[in-house]
Amino acid sequence: MIRRRALLAAPLLAPGALPAQEAPWPVKPVRILLAYPPGGSTDVLARALAEALAAAIPGSSFIVENRPGGAAVVGTQAAAVAAPDGYTLSLGNNQTHAANAAMVRDLPYRPVEDFTPIGRLAEVHHALVVPASSPAHTLAELAARGRAGRLTYASSGVGSASHVIAESFVRRAGLEATHVPYRGGAQATTDTIAGVVDFFVSTWPQVMTLVKEGRLRALGIGAPARLPDVPDVPSFAEAGAGYMAVDAWFGLWAPARTPAPVIDRLSEALPKILAEPAMASRLASLGFTPAPLRAAEFAAFQRAEVERWQGLVELTGIRLEG
User: Fold this and answer.
1) Which of 51, 86, 105, 290 has its CA 20 to 30 A from that of 233?
2) Is 90 exceeded by the pLDDT of residue 187?
C-alpha cells in the first residue's frame, strides 16, 4: 500500500525535479542606487559600504549606480519601483527618505511605504561658516549684520538641508537675506571662501579641513557639544540656535516587499561593518560619525524624521515641484 501511494504521487514531480527550496542570495551583483553624482561625500560612503558588504557576505558583489537629478528624486524613485528581489538597494539620507515627503509637491514615490528600512549607517553634522575675512565672529554678530542690512547665503541647492537650515536661521533671527543656490557644495564652498556670499550652512565634511586651515570660520556646528579637533567652534545650542542642529543622516533601504531573509542578513551585517576599525577610521576621515540602527529601530527613526521635516518645511515655506 505504501509503495502504491508513492507511485501514484510520483507524477506530481517532473522527472529529475527536486522539492522547491528557497533560492540562495545573492547569485548576481546587487545594485546600490544613489541619487547623487559621483565624487561627493555620499558617493564615497556608498562605495566604501559596497566594498565592505562584499567582504562581509561571501560570494557577493555590490555595485554603486549613480542616478542624480531632481532634488534626489530621480534615483530614489528608480529604487522605489525596482523589483523587490534583493538585487536593488537604495542608499539615501534625510533628504531622500524624510524631507522630500514634506517638501516636494507630487512626489512620485512614498519615502516610508515604498521602502523597507535595512539600517541607519552614519550621521553628519552641519556647520554655519563665513569667509575668514568676515567681521562676524559669532552667530549673534552675524545676525546683527543681517538686521542692519541684507546678507547673502549659499546653499548646496534649492530644497537641500543646507537651504532649509539656513532659511530657518534667517526667519527665526528676523534677518534680511538673499538665498544663492548652487549645484552641490563644492562651488558654494569656493564662493564662501572668496567672500562672494556672507555665509553657508554646509555639512561638516565639506568644510572641516578649510576651517582647520583658517580659510573659513565656523560660527556654530550641530554637534551636541564642541568637537575636540575644533574646540573654538561652539555648538548651535551653545550659540543660542539649537533649532539649527539638524544632522544629515544616511541609511540603506530596499524596495518594499523585498524578502525578509535578505533584509535580515543585511541588517545584521551593517553594525558589524560600521564597528570595524578600518571602516570607522575611514568614515571619521570624511567627517562621518557611525550611527548604526537596525531595521526596526531605523523604521521608527525615519517616521519621526518625516514629522520633523514637515515642521521645518512649514517654518521655511520651502517647497519643490516633483
Assistant:
1) 290
2) yes
